[in-house]
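Lab manual, section 2.4: Encoding a predicted structure.

Procedure: take the sequence of the chain (78 residues), apply the prediction step described in section 2.3, and record the output as structure tokens. A sample record is shown.
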Amino acid sequence: MARSDITGRRKLKGNSVSHSNIKTKRWQDVNIQRRRVWVPELKRFVTLRLTTRDIRSIDKVGFVAFAKKHGYEVPGLS
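Recorded output:
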């Protein structure tokens, strides 16, 4: 399943709306990317499945702060 490892975001249900305004159910998938993220506190890379929004937020605030905000336990950090 396409799911973010940290935030847990996954696909949403939405509607396809035609020109005649007929609505049919469809899935909206999240943009999941597999990325190696450098964690300076651990001095190593961590491979995670993240959404593109997660990647941008990690670049801005840092991995440990982002993980702590979303309740993700970083292995190796106390």
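Check your result against the sample. The first strand starts at residue 12 and ends at 17.
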